[in-house]
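Hey all, sorry for the wall of text incoming. These are the two entities for the joint prediction.
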Amino acid sequence: MASLLRSLILLLIVQSFLVAIAFGSNEVEEFSEALLLKPLPDRKVLAHFHFENRAPPSNSHGRHHHLFPKAISQLVQKFRVKEMELSFTQGRWNHEHWGGFDPLSSMNAKPVGVELWAVFDVPQSQVDTSWKNLTHALSGLFCASINFLESSTSYAAPTWGFGPNSNKLRYGSLPREAVCTENLTPWLKLLPCRDKDGISALMNRPSVYRGFYHSQRLHLSTVESGQEVLGSGIVLEQTLTVVLQPETTSVESNMQPSWSLSSLFGRKVVGRCVLTKSSNVYLQLEGLLGHELKNVDTEIEAHELWKNAEFELSLKPERVLRESSSFLFIFDIDKSSDSEPFDIGLTWKLPSKWSCQQAPLHASRFLMGSGNERGAIAILLKATESQEKLSGRDLTNGHCTIKANIFQIFPWYIKVYYHTLQIFVDQQQTTDSEVLKKINVSPSTDKVSSGMMEMMLELPCEVKSVAISIEYDKGFLHIDEYPPDANQGFDIPSALISFPNHHASLDFQEELSKSPLLSSFKENSLVRSYTEVLLVPLTTPDFSMPYNVITITCTIFALYFGSLLNVLRRRIGEEERFLKSQGKKTGGLKQLLSRITAKIRGRPIEEQSSSESPAAQSSVLSSKLIFKIILVAGAAAAWQYFSTDK
Amino acid sequence: MAAVNRDNEEEVKTDDGSPKIKPRPIVRLGIFLIAHSPVFSVVFSAAGVLALLLLPLLAKNTYISENALMPGSARSMLSNRDVSDGSKLVKDIKNFRLNHEGQGVEVQKLIGKYMSDMGAEFSYQKFHPEGNQFHPLHFFSGPDSYTLLENVSCASYGVNVAGIIRAPRGDGKESIVLVTPYDFINGGDYEDLSLGIVSSLFSLLSRVTWLSKDIIWLVADSRYGDYRPVAAWLTEYHSPSFKVSDLLKCDEQNTADNFRRAGTMAAALVLKVDGRSEKFEDTLSIFAEASNGQMPNLDLINVVNYLAVHRQGFYVKVEKVVSLLSSSWLKIFGEIFEAVGKLAHMLNPDWNFGIPAADYLEGSATLASSLYSQALGIPTGPHGAFRDYQVDAITLKVSPRFPPDSKTRQHDFFLRGARLLEGTIRSVNNLLEKFHQSFFLYMLTSPSKFISVGVYMIAFALLVAPLPMVAASLYIDGCKSLTNSTHNPTENFKSWKWLDAAKQVFTLHLLGFIVTLLPYFICQVPGQHSPTNRSIMWGTTSSSLLLITFVTMPGCSPFSSRLHGTNWAILKSVTISAAFIGLCLMSIINFATAEIGALLLVPTCLMAQPIKPALRSRRLKSLLGAFCSIVLLTIGFPVMFFAISKGLLGEGLVGLSLGGEFWTWLESLWAWKSATYLYIGMVHLPCWLLCLCILFHPS
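and here's what came out:
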């Protein structure tokens, strides 16, 4: 006992020494938290929680970390994950009203359910194994059925259509996964303060899950140090995006609702998490109101920015940053305390209206056709109004073009006929080569792998609408692949439309922003949007059918073998002759009487004569018969064996 | 082995000293049935008709089979605020109408504005008013094989408005559709009420958080009928043409690009308000029959019926044949059944199958209407368009008890109507899978009583059971008489005797097929023709074709000499076999048609016999038989039956325009792709002709 205690003390000393070393060096583990609030044009409020945890490349800690979650670092080390993103989403991102051309939407608008992609740093042959192990590990870590992505029918290996160009990338999504608080709790466990302190204390479960959109995301990437000894550092980015509807009391329908943190979440922030490096709350106002106040710069007028005729903030912002079309108010929650909690509120005084920036093309996907046999998948890209304003056009050969990558996964039971791909630009059918620059198809194999299609379209800038349709046949599932009860249908995961020439970034002119949230906004992020998940009703067999089949087969077999044996065994002529000879012997009436009495008594008729010869004959016959039965049964068994064993 | 011997022993039958092998029991039973086929055919047919008459007694009470539906378990959230939204829309539309006469599109814009104010996405859709064109090859093809007509005139097109509420937390994979047919140009006050109900509901649904399926509200432009706009919208929804269409060039506003969709449809409700209720309560009529007698899942009807009766206090009814309610013979049947039921109840208190005669009358009138609508194969409302896409849908026709301009009652009416729809939508919204639990094959005898397929099959099975028996017995008779009459051994190929008859039957069926296709070619004849003219054209071409057949193939003709003619018994046997096969096939496609067809065809086929020997013999029995067959044949002629059923349904007098009416009726059948048309042309008509051939057979 004493030795154990001593070793424990020794360990503690060593550890504190190590920590001291770590603090002593430049590279330390950093954690920062931020909350971005943003009123949306359709009277909702977006809240984006952003937590970043950095573990620098260092070998000094060994396997220990100060702030960084051990579970994640072990995951990275074990499966050699280079980059990974996992998202849990409920609800649909409304591209029209909530924007489609800013870093927030391009990074946080995720498909319904679970989406996971990962890039591995292992030899090509081990990528699939690593992926499978990773899915199982994550499944346990996040209490979700991510392990279903293990099956090769549910993931794909996109080459260039998805985003990161890598052949060690695997992508999978589970549209049916229900996202709930049991997925949020393990996610929060990765934070140093969990949801006990700091910004994350706002995450009141009922209010978070009451929202119209809810997406929790975990993105991790490894940073190579360049030095062999140091190994690699990890950056873990955790975001939670919720879209909430503030309670309105105003009668006027065109008035934006006023809200505060406490009215949105039912909680207030009482100081930051002590382990964070920075802890900020941002409020982003965009659109029309920003333009009106564009030319203000002096201190007095800066005051006007947050308290004016149109709206009023309940707290004075620390700083105000300006972007081309929006303002960012920065608040520091350091000053808040138990007695004076941080509770930012926005009160609208005048009705205001603005619109969000939209992606160059709005994508929607739907199924065509009816019936249980075949159908078609169509993707409709429509030009949005904001398209003219957008930069990032590719002016090659004097043509203005928009590039769009489309990445789709088809489950194997959707048997896509790739040759039926049709592209209509502005309602004119085009030959493929006109707009289709690049296509990569990997067809599905039944019950083995899912199909994948990557397309690169190059469209003229003045395009109004593009329709892409591709036909498919519905396959039949194996009997044990059907859900046990009657089902709604089967899902086709979302397609991803990305615009490689368009990058969304918010550049707040001042260079001070050391905040990880702002620097992540500043990075050029690929504009992408996910389409709807599709529901394919497949033919569901009548599961009482096996019973029917068994009965019918048995009947048929009985009839067949019965008559076959009759044919083989009976000799009608012989029998007739035999009967005739017998009939001569005994009087008809007498025999009838004897038969009747026998029937009444329930006993067989006594044989009067010639009982030996039939018996002798019958033994021969019976051995033949048995031989034949065995032959037929053997043939049936062999047939059964060869027909089923494939 | 001794047992085998004993078996052999038992098969010995010694009646007069010469032993004979006794055939198996099933064979014996068959032989017995065939030998006594006249008796059995009478018994079976009578039992079949009796079983049909008994059906209202055998109807079971409906019950909600799918537990997830839970109708009426949630409190209605519809508030007065939502209803006032609906009332406001109705008022606005009325005012707008008064100020702007005949500007339909503007009303659509008004509705669109309302939808977007409620937070819904909305879109307009244009469609061609004329869609259904007869094409012989399109009969069993899917709904997506519409061919767009060229040279569409811009003068007439309809515009649908569709609004979509996205479920706040839903995944958008499924949707529920609400349809209100509305005539934008000259819609009456009652039609406004239907808009009011649905917009009240829509206002509620845009706020609620429990939605898991998107809600689509389609205001269908019913200027060109109720069905066509819904069908056009569904076609655009499910199989849009990405190519440029002529219609889009017509108008300044481009409506093509913003057509909006929302997932796979789970169910659809069509709401119509028309007419004033004669009852004290507001009346709700449910229409469910889609094309070719397809029915929506019974649970959908159950949910609506349950909510309407137990929550909102509507008087719910389904269509019935009114003239049957006053028929005395049906009343006598009802009284007999009631008496028998009472007697049975006296004998054993557990036997409770008796129902009052009045209930019996109601039930049979409803059943008759159900049978008729299913047999006709024409959808009874816009919900029929949904069935083509395997979407369960029903039409709800509400008749308020107040005049449409009564403001005070209107509020209450909106509240109850919208609550009914809210409850239904909430139930469907609960559903995690497709409708599957309850029945798809049923007939209604009242909104809360149904007959499932297992019960109503019995009547049909009994009715057609005599056919194979009689066919077999006739075949045996025919063979015997043939062997007796012809002593030439070379002609005596016993097994091939039916071939001549089969040739004749096949030829007449082929003729029936050609006659079925003829209307298509008659429609291609240039120039405007009245339906009467067209029917005359059809009649003359068909009869001339028949004559040509008789002349060219003397074997087929009933008027040919005896040398060519086949034995009538064998001909009848083959005819009956063909009728049996046809009826059985039809019972799979559309049961009600087969049932009614069997009622007509089975007695005709069974009674058909040559008239000449009967006249020659002058015996009362054979004369009566001949008379019966003539009467049955007269009734069996499609035109005649059409006229009689018209008279039964109490629809006006039968005049000279009968041919024209018949033509119009048939035209509607093929326009709706009803399999009944094929049945009439390819099963009923040839069999009827064959019976005619037997009647005039020279033997």
